[in-house]
Amino acid sequence: MRRYEPFDIHAVAARGMNYITSMVDEAYDHLPYWFIQINESPAYARHVRVDDAELVASWYEAIVALEKMNGATERSNAVKGGLKRHLLRSWGPKSLRYHEPYPWSNTQHASFHEMGWVLAGMNQLCRDEPNNSDAYDKSKRLVEGLRSLAIQRTTRTFWSGDFPMGETVYEFPSDIYLPNEGFVDERVTGRGETSIRNAVLLEPLVARAIEFEDTVALDLAVGIANHMLGLSRYFNYKGEFFGHVHSAVWFAIGLVKLGGFIKNERYVEKAVQIFEYVRSLSSEFGWVPEYAQWHPMEEEHCETCCIKDMIVFALEAVELGYDYWDLINKYTRNQLTEQQIKDGCFISTADKADENGYTWKNIDTRAVGGWSGGGEPNSLSLSRFRSIAGCCVGTAPVALGMVYEKTIEEKNGGIYINFPIPRESSAAVIKTGYPNDGSMHVTMRTDGDVLIRHYDWMGEQCSVTVNGTARPVAYRDNCMLIEKASRGDVIVLTHALNERVSHETVRGLSMHITWRGSDVVRMDPPGLPVQMYQRELGVAKSYPKPAGAKAPSQNVPAPTDQKR
Q1: I want to staple 339 with a disulfide (CB 3.0 to 4.6 A). Which of 375, 381, 522, 553 is the partner?
Q2: β-sheet bridge partners, residue 325
Q3: How far apart are CA 559 and CA 499, in angstroms?
Q4: Residue 92 to residue 99: CA distance in whole angstroms
Q5: Nearest Cα to Cα of residue 259 among 203, 324, 328, 201
Q6: Residue 238 Cα distances to 45, 128, 269, 273, angstroms
Q7: What is the pLDDT of residues 91-114, one digit of tens each?
């Protein structure tokens, strides 16, 4: 009988921590490397401007999430300290954060798209250090600076007359702001979609409004939401759009949070429409296209940031009663996990000292734990310049950490086991047999009612024992209820675990996906060059051989995709 690797969230987190704590530059106080080329011979990483723009914020968030799963180490604390110091530097006009003038940087500016990461990182720092007045003041002034730069649209002027907007509407004149010149009409990022790229600010603005009672943040959030749903004409009446999925779903996360917070059903409904549209373009196992209607689907790749966004949106929506539990579980343990580099044996290396912003040493081991910026449904692309993407390394751990926290949840007088994921908390310890057998063991560390979420793939014939004694299966909140469990009790859930094969067309490719429960255990056809879903135990994994070493080019072309 075939046996398969179980999903291990702690192993995924450990690999992520390896990447984040090693793909940094000691000479610049642990400044991250965004740009890495693992397909070159030898492979290398190099600094680019964005290292000190979004990455110091997003990697700070990521390392906090990873430490919550596996604990902090001396190394993680050192890197986190460096990231924090970078994040708190380089604040300038209009209270925006600008990147440092490093040798590899060009025009110094602030990007409103990147301010989304910066504000999210500052929110996390304020959570971690509630008495850090510097962090709190910079966050508050950042929001105020953003509001001062936003244009409030108040009047529609048609041929037939002037008409008031009827609601608060804010938009930014451009997507970049220069510290000494402000908005310069001749300068743009060139990536297009200014409205939605800037609108990623919505989610961290709403988080700040909720958690820190920031009224300016709430006002700006409402104005951005109204602009995107109306004047921008970005989304059609069904929530469909043409463009960048990561930005659109990140905006939708902010919109559903805002709608839930201020009890605005229209915001919630529109956010769900956007999410469902992207879901219609995605696979059951979590492959999500980077763009909607921008390229032919067979040319699309999956940016891990998009998987993160779908998971985080679904986690927000379940709080409002939407049933996305199965999606969260499947996306997390399948494509989110498979788009991570697990073994660097195929990466060519060179024993060469760092110089001119480049690093070569031990890239094969340092690259382990990085997430792809361009995954295919069955393989990791090495031909894209974003075969590993620094942005994805910052976002994937955030989703992973949120799922980890939500796995065991104490609420409504009960202890909810929401995902079949092994983990420990002060309330319980979970062990599972998936994907090899349908079983879950819950050892209680406290007293209370236990509710184990039921998934359709578990079937209707579930058995529950407590300390070896059978219990009738009762249900509440779509969960199997075990009433009045006591500390030390061992609850065992068992059910049949059938193997099924689903058929999907993903990225223009006809796929045959073998499932055991919520785990993909085999995918046909298998992919190249770095095959995903090699999960069968006892079978040697297939990786390409590293190419012969050659001198790296010092004239690496600038990234050409629209994100940067």
Answers
A1: 375
A2: none
A3: 43
A4: 10
A5: 203
A6: 42, 39, 10, 6
A7: 999 999 999 999 999 889 999 999
Tell me how crowded residue 477 is: count the other CB atoms within 10 A of its CB: 12
Which residue type occupies 255? L
pLDDT of residue 563: 35
- Residue 554 has a CB neighbour count (10 Å cut-off) of 9
**Token couple for 14:** 């450990």
Instruction: Give the whole-angstrom CA distance, residue 446 versus residue 465.
Output: 18
- Each residue's pLDDT tens digit, 520-556: 999 999 999 999 999 999 999 999 988 654 444 444 4
CA distance 532 to 380: 7
CB 400 within 8 A of CB 390: no
Residue type at position 94: K
Tell me how far CA of residue 376 lies from CA of 4, 97, 109, 245, 380, in angstroms. Answer: 22, 35, 34, 16, 6
Give 264-293 pLDDT, tens digit per residue.
999 999 999 999 999 999 999 999 999 999
- For the chain, give every domain's residue range: 43-329, 410-494
For the record, the structure tokens of 25 come out as: 């530059």
Q: Which two tokens stand for residue 24?
A: 């940094």
The tokens describing 343, both together, are 């073994």
pLDDT of residue 386: 80
Is the pTM value of this prediction over 0.90? yes
Count how many Cα atoms sit within 13 Å of the Cα of residue 174 in the half-sphere of its side chain. Answer: 15
pLDDT digits (tens, 9 = 90+) for 451-480: 999 999 999 999 999 999 999 999 999 999
Q: Mean pLDDT for the chain? A: 94
Q: What pLDDT was estimated at residue 455?
A: 98
Secondary structure (DSSP) of 176-192: EEBTTTBS-TT---S--
Is-contact 231 153, C-beta < 8 A? yes
Residue 133 burial class via C-beta count within 10 angstroms: exposed 0-12, middle 13-18, buried 19 and up? exposed
The rounded distance, in Å, linking the Cα atoms of 59 and 65 is 10
Q: What tokens does 8 get? A: 């291990």
For residue range 199-214, what is the model confidence (pLDDT) as tens digits?
A: 999 999 999 999 999 9
Beta strands in 86-175 (DSSP E): 110-111, 151-152, 155-158, 161-164, 170-171
Whole-number pLDDT of residue 548: 57
Provide the angle, in degrees to the nearest 10, between the axes of the packed helices 55-70 and 112-128. 40
- Geometric angle at alpha carbon 109, from 354 and 107, rounded to 5°: 60
Q: Give the single-character DSSP code of 501.
A: E
Choose among 235, 270, 234, 277: nearest CA to 255: 270
Tokens at 225, concatenated: 């939401």
Question: Which tokens in the block code for residue 425?
Answer: 């908390």
Alpha carbon distance 86, 379 (integer Å): 35
What the block records as the tokens of 477 is 């909140």
Fold for the domain defined by 410-494: Immunoglobulin-like (2.60.40)
- Give residues with Cβ within 8 angstroms of 404, minimum separation 6: 9, 13, 68, 69, 421, 423
43-329 CATH fold: Glycosyltransferase (1.50.10)
Q: Are strands 170-171 and 24-25 parallel, antiparallel or unpaired?
A: unpaired
Rounded Cα–Cα distance for residues 178 and 332 (Å): 39
Nearest 5°: phi and psi at 485? Answer: -70, 150
